[in-house]
Amino acid sequence: MMMSMVKSRTGQLKRFLRPHMIVTIAILALWVAMSAVSSYAGVPTDAMKATIDEVLRIVRDNELKQPNKAAERRQMLERVVEARFDYQEMSRRALGAPWNTLSDQEKQEFVGLFRTLLTNSYADKIETYSGEGVQYLNERTEKEYAEVRTKVLSGKTEIPLDYRLINKVNDWRVYDVVVDGISLVNNYRGQFAKIIKSSSYADLVEQLRKKSEKLRAPQP
Description:
Strand order of the largest sheet: 1-2-3-4-5
Number of strands: 5
Number of helices: 8
Distance between the termini: 21 Å
Structural class: alpha+beta
Largest sheet: 5 strands, antiparallel
Shape: globular
Helix content: 55-70%
Low-confidence stretches: 1-14, 31-40
């Protein structure tokens, strides 16, 4: 599964609202990283490992694997990931300058739509993932910012994967993910800017709303 996503990512990342594939790989990497020994573990890395431990606990819970527990299991996984990913910070950076023109209510709406887009895009992938491996490389910190560098191992393929974090209230939160040099935030910012320039912010929100509704709809 990981190999097929990697082979097609170049074309996918150029299409509107497809950068969620970066997040898919990132979240998968989070909960399989326990299979590799870290050569360097600082505070940001430790923070991410805490998330990994909890996700693994949920994924391996036999009771939560029961069909009638599917919704509860997914909600638990999303809550754990949300505790590590700062969706408001990601939204602000992805939208760019227009963020500063929004009211508090509009910001809240945008964050909600963006969060729904991301979480629903990778939820199925987490629950069906068969498992490869992740190796921690190192981490860099500068004041309130940090970057944890890893690589995803899939057969003979190695995919560079970097987590960018910001320290808020003594907690390290992910605000961007970079896969093989491609930034999730920068990719979305480019796509959002094109839509706003060619149409309007309202049209962007409408497109996000339709995409989110489609992702939330029950699959046949």
